[in-house]
Design goal:
60 residues; elongated
Length: 60
Amino acid sequence: MPKALTITGMAISILIFLVFALDLAIGVPFKGVSTTMDVAFVVGSAVVAFLAFTTFRELK
């Protein structure tokens, strides 16, 4: 079960990263309304993905 939760955390954080990186780059989903929030979500989701990945590696 913990491995499934870490994989789910990685998948969701990568999805959030892609959505806000696209908004930052070309303004697709949210029309680039807030660059500050885009950067904050990109950084936050990258940190969560990294933490989930390191936790997944430790569970082996």
